[in-house]
Specification:
The chain has 16 helices and eight strands. The chain has 406 residues and is α/β, with parallel strands linked by helices. The chain has three domains: 212 residues, 2-Layer Sandwich (Nucleotidyltransferase, domain 5), CATH 3.30.420; 112 residues, no CATH class; 57 residues, no CATH class. A hairpin with a 2-residue loop joins strand 7 and strand 8. Helix 5 crosses helix 6 and helix 11 crosses helix 13. The relative contact order is 0.10.
């Protein structure tokens, strides 16, 4: 089983005194996810970027700060490398208002560690976590103790290691620092005001982001207050599809069944795209399957994905819209109509062909061969009879030629 490495660093601190300029509103944890087979390439390429952009010294987001042209240049090089990103965004203002965890630093860090660790542990059976010891040591130290006391293998083949390292000698942690700092320019209200209008960090990171998890959930729901300029936007549809997806994820996150894990991951991916108005688009089956592969799931065919992932989620009441362009959680009436039209375009022609086949068989056998009368096909028989009745009722030529009753 191939090992997966998660290099972790954070941006922001514990403080909750927002009257101080030095206290950030957010606490961000970024995990750089790398397959063991790609480690050597990552190390070599990051060493080269450090020489080109940092005179061989450590990559630090704080070293770049608000020099956005430089940050974009570094990111363009870094984002070509073989890694993906999992991240947690904590809005400390909401934590202060609604939760008691802010009163104790150790408890706060443990709570954050639980959110990050749960996502990593569920996705990667053979995991090596690496985090930074530099600074006050507190977050990494608490994380280490938390992992050691909560490590419970999901199955007999699970493996897990944890290292605390000096980021100066660990390129993966340096990348985590860069990404966490860049995410702060996306979500921090003060920092994002400094970004030139032609720079879109979220768009740059999009293909590398496996998951963005928010805490608290109330932070997520701000997305329902705007409609990306679409007059067809329907807040009720958006809220319902979002809640049904979140409910399924919450109820099934800890399942050990691989298909259910695929369903949960797919919903998280759809939810991630749903949460950003400028990224609300249909996502192709190929993109979703590739995202599952990057997250360490075994390959399945497109047909298996449609039936075992999307089909099963719909069977459980999750609302997923589809069109020839792919899948998404709907937020407009048009996207619901897209799904209905898609189903209509597939189902009605199939029923029409089946009816023609049935009529031909009955005619050719003088009525002896009538499969639709069987117990197994009662449902089909009812649907086809209703369809024929509808066609008859809506055909003026048939209605005008009705014979009088005798």
């Amino acid at each position: 089983m191939e090992r997966t490495y998660a290099f972790i660093d954070e941006c922001g601190g514990y403080g909750f005194d927002f009257s101080k300029q030095s206290t950030s509103n957010l606490f961000i944890v970024a995990a750089i996810i790398v397959k063991e087979a790609n480690l050597a390439q990552l190390e070599t390429e990051v060493d080269l970027i450090r020489k080109q952009e940092f005179n061989g010294s450590e990559i630090k987001s704080n070293g770049i700060k608000g020099k956005h042209t430089r940050r974009v240049r570094v990111l363009n090089k870094v984002l070509k490398l073989p890694f993906n990103i999992l991240t947690l965004i904590v809005d400390k203002r909401e934590v202060l208002a609604e939760h008691g965890i802010y009163r104790n630093k150790k408890y706060f860090y443990e709570f954050i560690n639980n959110l990050v660790y749960k996502e990593l542990r569920g996705a990667y059976p053979s995991l090596h976590i690496v985090t930074d010891e530099v600074g006050e040591h507190e977050f990494a130290s608490v994380f280490s103790k938390y992992v050691k006391s909560h490590r419970k293998p999901i199955n007999l083949f699970d493996m897990e290691d944890f290292d605390i390292v000096d980021s100066k000698s660990t390129n993966g942690v340096q990348l985590a620092d860069l990404i966490a700092g860049t995410l702060s320019y996306i979500y921090d209200d003060h920092k994002k005001k400094t970004i030139p209008t032609d720079i879109d960090y979220l768009r740059m990171l999009e293909k590398k982001l496996l998951l963005i998890k928010f805490f608290p959930k109330s932070y997520d729901e701000k997305l329902f207050e705007h409609s990306e300029g679409d007059n067809n936007y329907n807040k009720n549809i958006a809220l319902l599809s979002y809640r049904k997806a979140e409910q399924y994820v919450t109820e099934h996150t800890m399942s050990s069944d691989e298909d259910i894990q695929r369903q949960v991951f797919t919903l998280k991916y759809l939810l991630f795209r749903f949460k950003y108005n400028n990224l609300r688009r249909y996502i192709s089956t190929k993109e979703l399957i590739n995202a599952l592969l990057r997250a360490n799931y075994s390959r399945i065919s497109e047909q298996a994905f449609r039936s075992r992932v999307i089909g099963t989620l719909r069977d459980r009441g999750v609302i997923i819209s589809s069109s020839p362009r792919g899948y998404k959680l709907p937020s407009t009436e048009k996207e619901i109509i897209d799904y209905y039209q898609h189903v209509s375009g597939v189902v009605l022609p199939m029923l029409h062909r089946l009816n023609l086949c049935d009529e031909t068989l009955r005619l050719g056998t003088n009525g002896d061969f009538n499969i639709l009368c069987g117990e197994n096909f009662k449902g089909l028989s009812v649907i086809i009879d209703a369809m024929k009745k509808e066609i008859h009722n809506n055909n003026p030529s048939l209605q005008n030629n009705k014979q009088p009753a005798i």
